[in-house]
Write a structure and sequence with these properties.
The chain has 688 residues and is of the alpha/beta class. It has two domains: 49-133 and 168-500, no CATH class; 507-574 and 606-687, Transcription Regulator spoIIAA, CATH 3.30.750. It is 59% helix and 7% strand. It has helices at residues 12-24, 28-38, 41-44, 50-79, 83-100, 112-128, 170-194, 206-229, 241-251, 258-280, 291-306, 308-312, 332-363, 370-385, 396-404, 411-427, 436-446, 448-451, 457-463, 465-480, 483-503, 548-559, 563-582, 594-605, 623-638, 650-658, 677-686, and strands at 108-109, 157-161, 164-168, 393-394, 507-513, 519-521, 528-529, 533-539, 608-614, 642-646, 673-674. Strands 5, 6, 7, 8, 9, 10 and 11 form a seven-stranded mixed sheet that branches. A two-stranded antiparallel ribbon has the order 1-4. Helix 5 runs antiparallel to helix 16 and helix 13 (332-363) packs antiparallel against helix 14 (370-385). Pfam families: STAS (PF01740), Sulfate_transp (PF00916). It is found in: Apical cell membrane. This is Sulfate transporter.
Length: 688
Amino acid sequence: LMERKTRVKINRKEVMLAKLRKSCSCTPKKLKNFVMDFLPVLRWLPKYQCKEYIWGDVMSGLVIGIILVPQAIAYSLLAGLKPIYSLYTSFFANIIYFLMGTSRHVSVGIFSLISLMVGQVVDRELLLAGFDLNDDAPPALGDGSLQNDSQSNTTAFNLTIAGMNTECGKECYAIGIATALTFVAGVYQVLMGIFRLGFISMYLSESVLDGFATGASLTILTAQVKYLIGIKIPRSQGHGMLVITWINIFRNISQANLCDVITSAICIVVLVTAKELGDRYKHKLKFPLPTELVVIVVATLVSHYGKLNELYASSVSGAIPTGFIPPKVPHFNLMLRVAVDALPLAIVSFVFTVSLSEMCAKKYAYTIRANQEMFAVGFCNIIPSFFHSFATSAALAKTLVKTSTGCQTQVSGVISAMVVLLVLLFLAPVFYSLQKCVLACIIIVSLRGALRKFRDVPGRYHVNKVDTLVWVVTMSASALISTEIGLLVGIVFSILCIIVRTQQPRTALLGQIQDTSFYEDDLEYENLSSVPKVKIFRFEAPLYYANRNYFLKSLYRLTNLDPNLEAARRKKYEKKEKQHLKKGDHTTANGLGTAETTLQLVTKQIDFQALVVDCSSISFLDTTGVNTLKEILKDYKDLNISVLLACCNPSVIDSLKRGGYFGKDFGSMQEMLFYSIHNAVQFAKDQK
C-alpha cells in the first residue's frame, strides 16, 4: 500500500475567529481596497488608454444607443408600461454598470425575457386591483406629464403611503408594481452576493436556459400578434396564457385592422431582409445597419402625415414626455405582494448577466468577478427603482453588436446612456404617432435567434438525448404553463435526470486487453480475454442509498450468481442430506452421493473464486454504500469467494475505514484493497 500523508489537524474555531477578526478589522488600506472592489471603475478608468480605446468605445456606444432607443420603446409593450419608463431603465442601467461592472464588453439594459416577466406580474396585479387590461384605449391628450391620471382608466386604487390615503390610476399603479418588483429583485441579488450564493446559477444548465429562452420567446411572439393585426383582445393571465391568447386571436380575427396588417407585413419584410443581409455581409460592414431606427423614423413620419390613427384607428404609442420624473421610494405594501415573483426574476437576470460576462472574458482574455457582477446587476435594479425604472439584465444581441463594433471598455455604455438621454430630454415627443404594430414587428424580428433553436434540435438530439429532453420539457412548460413555472420545471427535471442517471448507471464485466495490464468493457470491445476464475465488475456512479439495489441487481445479473439464493439453496440441500443420513441412506434426494452433491453445487453454479470491484468511477460512498460493500464481502465469503476492491480514491478509502470494512486494526487491508485492477487480478490468481 502507498503511504498516506499525515493530515495536519486544523482548529476550525481558531480559523473562523481569525477570519472574523480579519473581516471586521478596518484599516485605511482595507477600506481603500473595499471601495476599489465595490466600484471597479476606480481601478481601470485611471489606466484608460484614450488614444487606443476611445474610437472603438465611442463607435460601439453610438451604435448601441441607436439600437437601444427603438428596442426600449418596443419592449415597453412587453412590460405593460409606458415607453418613457423603458428609456429611464436603459439610461440608469448603463450608468450604474459602468461604475460597478467587471466585464468590459457586456451590454446591460432592457431585455425581452426580463420585460416579459415584469409584464406578467404587472398585468396580474392590475387585474387583481380591478383595472381593465385593455391598453388599446386612445391616449389622453395633454402636456405629456406623468401625473396620476384616471382618463386612461376609470378604475382607481387606494394606496396608503406614510399614513396618507392616495388615489392611484392604472399607469401609476402599474409602474408602482414594476418598481417594487425591481427593488425586491435587486435586494435578493445583493443578498446573494453578500452570502456568496452565486453557485445557484450552476443548477441552470445550458439546456434549461435555452429551453426557457425559447419557450419565453413563443410567449412574447404570441403576446405581440394582436398588435400586428390590430385587434382588441383582453391580455390573458395565469397558466396557459399562450393557448388562451391564440384562441382569442382566432375568435377575433375578423376584426383585424387592415392598416396595421399592411404596415406589419412591410416592416417585417424590411427588418428580416436587412437582418439577413447584415448577417451575410457582416465581415464587410464596420457596424450593423440601424434598421430598427430607420423603420421607426419612416413609420412615424408616415403615421403622422398620413393620419393613420384618426383615419384608420391604428393604435399608436401616444404621448412620451420629456425630462425626468422626481424620484420616488417603491411602496413597501406592494413589495410584499411581489416578493415571491422577484426571486425567479433575480436569478434569471443574474444568470444571463454572468454567463454573458464570462463568455466575453474568455473570448478577450481577461477575468471577471462573479460575485461583483451580482452586486452590479443588483444595484442596477435597486437604484433605478427609485427613478421609475424596472428590472434589467445583460442582453446577448446587444452584447454581440457591442463587441463587433470595437468596444474596449464600459465607456461605451456611458456613450449609449448619453444617446438615450438625448431622446429623453428632446426627442421623445417625436414618437407620438408611432404605431404599436411597428414596435411589435421589432420585437418579433429580435426573437429570430431564440426561435432558430428549433433548427438545432436534431443536432442536439444526436449529441445528447437527455439534454434534448430537458430542453423540450423546459421549453414546453415555459410556453404552455408560464415562464416562472417553466424555469422551475426545467431545473427540477434537469436534477431528476441527473439523479436517474446515477440511480441506473452503466455497469459492466471487464475483460483483459490481450498482452496488456489493462481491462475494458467486454460488451463494448472485441478481442478481450476473460480472466479464469475471476470476475471484474465496474459500477460507473457513486454508490449511495438511491442506487444500492441497482448495484446489487446488476452485480448478481452479470456474475450470474446471487449469493443469498445460493446460500439458501445450499442450506436446503444440507437439510435434506441430514434427513437422509438419519434414515441411514447415504444418497441425497437427487440420488447422488454427498461428494457428488457438493461437486454439483460448486462446479455448475460458481465459475469464479474472486470478485474484483473496479471502484475507479465511484466518486463517493455514503453509509448505505459502505454497508452494501460490507454485505457483499460477507455474502461472497460464505461461498468461499474473495471480494477485492481496485482503484479506490482516497475519499472512498476513508469512508471504508470509518465504516469498518477492513476490520478494527486494518490488518487485512493489503489483501482487500489494490491500486490497480491488474494487481488485484494477479493477487486473485495467486490465491489457492
